[in-house]
Specification:
about 475 residues; alpha/beta; Spore Coat Polysaccharide Biosynthesis Protein SpsA, Chain A; 18 strands; about 35% helix
Length: about 475
């Protein structure tokens, strides 16, 4: 059989890469093995050639891979741990790449962690899969012609966003195909829960990397016609009369441990305007309903129980927002969380007028159940800038909290009737037309505890969430491309 795969693997030393190299050499398809190393020293394993690089994901590394690969296909392994290729796995990947005319294929895998083998399925790639942490697994097989052509179009010289830039360039001209079969095994060293991993991208120490990723994504959006210049529709806040200036919206189901804290944090707010609290109780069965009723003697508290039984969090939001007593601005509070102080509501409403925006996003602090700060601490989403926030929003996986909306616009758009990602969908839709205002003071405490909805998700649930958000991005990207075409 013709040897038609050039392999590129991260390399520290012989003991680290020995087993991976041996596994690759067992395949009759492997032509040459190149070792990507940041420090070149010692004797190399037999039959391997070293390529010294500054960083595994750098732009120059991608260019070096494109230059050195002489086979029909190019395999890139992106981890330093041992790779075990499955039986006839490379043959299968080549076969699918040929059948699908794919520029790149990737597959599901097994992960070994703490001596236990677990399935690690991935999700399908789509045009909205723009987040830089999209999980392809660790084995990427490129059509070498597509790889070289895409690398030639890379204009950036990124220290760590090179691989991200490459796959964006590749996706513009070639299919990226998911093989939903378990074709290899990798060692998993990062055993943190999903709720801990999801905030890596806002860690301040990763800020320089995020700036690179933003530049690469913005360049891609311009090339595919999805970029929006910082030109926004103004908002006239006196267009519709409202009895209340603001309403806090709390959808809730079975949160007896936290709902009283949430309500109290609203009622303690000090403002120079009239506000109310609309609690949409989605048929709780654990005493939450009775706990809410304890507060209804306060005329500001409106307790709603929907007549429908098919509502998610977004549907409950629609019930509250379309209620005749909803105020001019609808401000979010999850039933798990609390406002950080007595001025949150005033601060959020002020931002609408100061920044002339139809949506405002605040800053929150991660805490445990007892409201003690936990890592990563303050989440301020400073990657949202007035000039490019609406574009960068297509890359990141969240927009922050609390979120507040100008009610007349929200009533036109409505909230997707889901219980995950509905807020992100609104942020993308609002930003297509309107400026989104930002508050960088901590105005919200986001509590993580054992009963929290996303503290620790299994891979199937996490994949479902990511697939939905990618779909939201795809729809939004298509809408923005269409908008630009019609200008």
């Amino acid at each position: 059989m013709k040897k038609n795969i050039s392999c590129f693997i991260p390399y520290i030393n012989g003991s680290q890469a020995e087993q991976t190299i041996r596994n690759l050499k067992e395949s009759p398809l492997v032509d040459r093995i190149y070792l990507l190393t940041t420090t070149l020293h010692g004797q190399l394993p037999d039959g391997c050639e070293a390529i010294q690089v500054a960083h595994l994901n750098a732009s120059e590394t991608m260019r070096q891979i494109a230059i050195h690969s002489a086979a029909s296909y190019t395999l890139l392994y992106t981890r330093y741990t041992t790779l075990q290729i499955g039986m006839f796995a490379l043959e299968r990947m080549v076969q699918i790449a040929e059948d699908a005319s794919a520029g790149m294929v990737y597959a599901d895998s097994y992960q070994m962690a703490d001596g236990v083998q677990r399935q690690a399925p991935t999700i399908d790639y789509q045009s909205g899969s723009l987040r830089d942490d999209f999980n392809f697994g660790s084995v990427l097989l490129f059509d070498t012609t597509a790889l070289k052509e895409s690398a030639a179009r890379m204009m950036g010289n990124y220290a760590q966003a090179g691989l991200y830039d490459l796959r964006l360039k590749l996706s513009q001209s070639y299919p990226i195909t998911h093989i939903n079969e378990y074709l290899y095994t990798e060692i998993e060293n990062d055993t943190r829960k999903s709720g801990e991993k999801q905030f890596d991208y806002v860690d301040p120490k990763n800020r320089s990397v995020q700036i690179e990723m933003e530049h690469a994504c913005t360049e891609h959006l311009k090339e595919v016609g999805g970029y929006l210049a910082p030109e926004f529709q103004p908002v006239a806040f006196d267009a519709v009369p409202f009895e209340c200036e603001a309403s806090v919206i709390i959808p809730v189901r079975n949160r007896i441990r936290t709902i009283r804290d949430a309500i109290r944090s609203v009622l303690m707010q000090k403002t120079d305007f009239k506000f109310n609290l609309i609690v949409i109780d989605n048929h709780s069965t654990d005493g939450t309903t009775e706990a809410i009723d304890e507060f209804t003697t306060d005329g500001r508290v409106i307790h709603l129980i929907p007549t429908r039984n098919d509502l998610g969090i977004g549907g409950c939001w629609n019930v509250g927002v379309h209620h005749p007593q909803c105020g001019k601005f609808a401000v979010q509070l999850d039933s798990d969380d609390v406002y950080s102080g007595e001025n949150t509501l005033q601060t959020m409403v002020n931002a609408f007028y100061q920044q002339n925006c139809a949506m405002v996003v605040g800053t929150y602090q991660m805490t445990d159940f007892d409201m003690n700060e936990i890592p990563p601490g303050i989440i301020d989403h400073r990657e949202w800038t007035p000039d490019n926030g609406r574009n960068n929003a297509l890359r990141i996986n969240g927009l922050g909290a609390p979120r507040a909306f100008y009610t007349p616009v929200l009533r036109q758009i409505n909230v997707p009737n889901t219980s995950y990602g509905e807020d992100y969908a609104l942020g993308l839709r609002f930003s297509r037309t309107y400026q989104i205002g930002r508050v960088y003071d901590v105005v919200y405490l986001c509590r993580r505890w054992e009963g929290n909805s996303d503290a620790a998700l299994d891979v199937v649930k996490m994949n479902g969430h990511n697939l939905y958000k990618d779909r939201i991005r795809t729809w939004e990207l298509e809408a923005r491309i269409k908008l630009n075409r019609n200008k």
